[in-house]
Amino acid sequence: MLHKSKIARNVFVLFCSFSLFANDVKETTTPMKVGTSPEWSNIYAKNRDSLTLDQIYSILDRGIVLASKTDMVNSLSVGGTALFPHSYITECGDQIAAVVHASLQACKNTGKNQILLIGVLHSQTDTLKKARQREREENIANDPCRGIFGPGLPSEELLCKEYSLDNFVFLLEHAAKRNGIEVPNVVIRYPYLVYGQPELLPGIEALQQLAKESIVVATGDLCHHGTAYAPFGQTPNAADKKFPISQQGYDFAYETIEENLRLLGGSDLLAYRKYCFDTISDTFEVGQILRFLLGPLEGHIRDLKLVDVSDFFKDKPQPNWVAASLVELKSKQSD
Questions:
Q1: Span 2-25+39-334: which CATH code?
Q2: Nearest to 123 by CA among 2, 33, 40
Q3: Closest CA to 192 of 252, 264, 140, 153
Q4: Domain boundaries, the chain
Q5: I want to staple 164 with a disulfide (CB 3.0 to 4.6 A). Which of 25, 120, 244, 288 is the partner?
Q6: In whole angstroms, what is the distance from residue 136 CA to residue 54 CA?
Q7: Which of 199, 165, 191, 146 is nearest to 284 (CA)?
Q8: 264/267 Cα distance (integer angstroms)
Q9: For residue 298, with 0-12 CB atoms within 10 Å meaning exposed, 13-18 middle and 19 or more buried, which class applies?
């Protein structure tokens, strides 16, 4: 099963590479301009490739320890979920691994043999960037980029540059192989252009059914900070402040994420979406979908670290960092 999944993934990557070359040549061959994003999928792939097997096992072991300090297994088993980061695996791999281990144990506890991964679909291509612009103009009711996307679904070429779930799948495969078990069926889905109305999103009914049959986990980086991210949002009450990686920066990130989780526990999805944009959290789509699928959620930060990304924004004044967080989300409906 593991071997077949790797073959399918390689075929998909080859297809995507060809599709991007044919349809988005200008974007992939133009040197990076000020304000554009690095090719994160390649950066993170190289990060994974640099790991030895012993290093991978060390990440998995640290993930076991981290998971043991939470109630994630129970939360996942009774309708809750967890958020893991998608930054460098060498920096936050233990946070991702904690969710991997909790997901595998929750599958065992519940008898479910399926993990539903909800990913962040970053606007990495011209097609997605233009769709995001149309969203700002509130003109997305029938937008072809609005819906639930995933491997094997229509328009899967939109995923060709996506990377937010790659580290999780990588560690899941290694954890299963190390433990001598089969990888559960993994279903990958990406929401796009939710805009406060998940119930009207094309593909949402199929996603609801998948959620009922699966252990549900998702990725999200709930706070980005620095001049490199200024075009994408503005931090409330701190628009002109730039916090270095320090206790002050950590406290700022913690408070920002705490408010994000408080809003996610409510029912005003547009207020949640706005706060995510203001604080540069890429959970603005993922959070809305989790709230719709699972109902009211109570979020708890289980681990937090600030990851320096300055090297990839050398044209921007420093600091620039991402808050990599492990978040457990308990279902209020199961109380």
A1: 3.40.830
A2: 40
A3: 140
A4: 2-25+39-334
A5: 120
A6: 46
A7: 191
A8: 7
A9: middle
Q: Among all chains, which residue has been given the structure tokens 């959070």? A: 287
Tokens of 252: 């700022």
Task: Quickly count: other Cβ atoms within 10 Å of residue 208's Cβ.
Answer: 13
**Of residues 1, 171, 184, the one with CA closest to residue 105:** 184
The packing angle between helices 2-23 and 166-179, to 10°, is 160
Altogether, the residues listed in the chain come to a count of: 335
One-letter amino acid of 96: I
What kind and span of H or E run contains 301? strand 297-308
335 residues of the chain, pLDDT tens digit each = 444 444 344 434 433 433 333 333 333 322 223 334 578 899 999 999 999 999 999 999 999 999 999 999 999 999 999 999 999 999 999 999 999 999 999 999 999 999 999 999 999 889 999 998 888 887 788 899 999 999 999 999 999 999 999 999 999 999 999 999 999 999 999 999 999 999 999 999 999 999 999 999 999 999 999 888 876 655 444 445 789 999 999 999 999 999 999 999 999 999 999 999 999 999 999 999 999 999 999 999 999 999 999 888 888 888 999 999 999 999 988 66
The one-character DSSP state at 332 is: G
Other CB atoms within 10 A of residue 11 CB: 10
